[in-house]
Amino acid sequence: MGFFITFEGIEGCGKSTQLRRAAERLTREGYDVVITREPGGCPIADAIRAILLDADNSAMVPLAELLLYAAARAQHVAEVIGPALREGKIVLCDRFTDSTLAYQGYGRQLDRELIGQLNTLAAGDIRPHLTLVLDCPVEVGLGRAMARINAASTAREERFEQESRLFHERIRDGFLQLAAAEAGRFLVVDGSGGIEETEDLVMTSILPRLPRR
Ligand code: TYD
Description:
Number of domains: 1
CATH architecture: 3-Layer(aba) Sandwich
Bound molecules: thymidine-5'-diphosphate
Helix content: 40-55%
Number of helices: 8
Strand content: 5-15%
Structural class: alpha/beta
Strand order of the largest sheet: 2-3-1-4-5
CATH superfamily: P-loop containing nucleotide triphosphate hydrolases
Distance between the termini: 12 Å
CATH topology: Rossmann fold
Radius of gyration: 16 Å
CATH class: Alpha Beta
Largest sheet: 5 strands, parallel
């Protein structure tokens, strides 16, 4: 069995950048690393991702959204994450089940017990060994996310960034509560500093926890 690490946090917290850097560092150290993301990570889940992030789909009800995240995850786990872990690889995933609890549970205020059951249904016995929450104030994260959108003008993917500030405060708080409730799996890393500074924090969190090669 390999080792499964998930990167979580609000928009613009820097998790995707840090995931890439961690993958490069671990590959240089000789580890066999797979990087992936949710929603998405394989063609069927990517097609579901396109529906979820399309700004034209603002009429989507929260329950439909929840079920689509679960459907994308079931496919991704079966097709990508499960096989990679069984081959002994280190899997780094940009968002996973905790995003559903934070966004659909704390953010959209759907029943968290139901979400927990759906997470288990979709992911089966695949659970992260380590979850890093890149934490930063909402105004810092949204500021970075907006700058990125303006630069790339990926207008159709900006549905979530348009949500209210309060929504993102609930999500940040949700991640911190999840981390506090399961301190053995989670590490909260300060993501408000510079990229290199945060990378050092991330690597000192990951390296001592990896299984011996
Ligand atoms: P993405 O462009 O990957 O955002 P980011 O770079 O911030 O990760 O879009 C993913 C969006 O999907 C993001 O707004 C969080 C949301 N999401 C959920 O609401 N629930 C989930 O279960 C997952 C995996 C993501």
